[in-house]
Amino acid sequence: MADDPYAILGVAKGASDDDIRKAFRKLAKELHPDLNPANRTGTEERFKKVSSAYELLSHPQKRRAFDRGEIDARGEPRRDRYRRHAAGAAHGARAGARTSFEDFDVGDIFSDIFGGKRSGRSGARGGYNVKGPDVRYTLEVSFLEAVSGAKKRVTLPKGGVLDLNIPAGVNDGQVLRLKGKGGVGFGAAERGDALVEVRVRPHAQFQRSEDDILLEVPITIDEAVLGAKIEVPTIGGRVQLAIPKGTNSGRVFRLKGKGIKCAGRSESGDQLVTVRIVLPDTIDDSLAFFFSEWRQKNKYDPGRS
Questions:
Q1: Would you say 77 and 83 are in contact if contact means Cβ atoms under 8 Å apart?
Q2: Distance between CA atoms of 11 and 7, rounded to whole angstroms?
Q3: What is the rounded CA–CA span in Å between residue 275 and residue 214?
């Protein structure tokens, strides 16, 4: 039936009150000019029908009376002419509050969805304000930019730009919030925020463990046996590392304070340097002879079982 309120809202006859509310909000959002100003032409009549259908079905007594066939889709009695006239006048007075775009309060749609606030009538139509939506972007930075901080510019899809200060020590996947840089608010409400997710590119040498920097460094067999001073890179530049005599492969040296200093913290992490003994590509005769002689004279057991 064309005037069936259930059909107008697109719900089944046995729909719950919650389903009816959701259907009404969805249709009202599609039809209301404050949300879709470009689609106003030709929608007002449909909006009136949707509003009238919801007016009837959201009222428990009216809905039961309609389901029993006692009243029609306009809320008028089906039999008694006098009651039809009286009920029609009363329904017209009630429905008048929601049968035009000008009187419909968009707050009725969004109060539960967005948690907006009502202000005075001097704000949006109906005094209803909703903060603008947040927008999300992804920004890729280098490893060293992430640990030391940097200034970056994000180009927006519509051509605008956002200038962003990357704080020192930002983590991969961390989201930075730029207040007021999001979508436009409804009515007099403020803009939403821009949420920028930082993606950190891996480094060829360094790895991160919380505020510490991890680094693996190769050393020669003679450096391991005799000891040496070697240069190692850090995020702040190259430094000297003393390798003592008899250093085993896998030993970890700690460079205090050479790690990451996150924004807002007073102390830096450390750099942990793991050494690996790397043999030469070619074992010459002199090296082979030396170790052959050494093995015959020394019974060395590294603890293999």
A1: yes
A2: 6
A3: 11
Assigned domain for 304 exists: no
In a domain, 305, yes or no: no
Task: Give residue for tokens 């409804």.
Answer: 186
Q: List, in sequence order, the alpha helices (H) in the chain.
A: 5-9, 17-31, 44-57, 60-67, 81-95, 107-110, 143-148, 221-226, 285-297
In whole angstroms, what is the distance from residue 125 CA to residue 6 CA?
Answer: 29
pLDDT digits (tens, 9 = 90+) for 88-138: 544 444 444 444 444 444 455 555 444 455 444 444 444 556 777 888 888
145, 168, 200: which is the final residue of a domain? 200
Higher model confidence: residue 164 or residue 231? 231
Domain-ending residue, one of 200, 217, 242: 200
User: The pTM is what?
Assistant: 0.55
Do 115 and 12 share a structural domain? yes
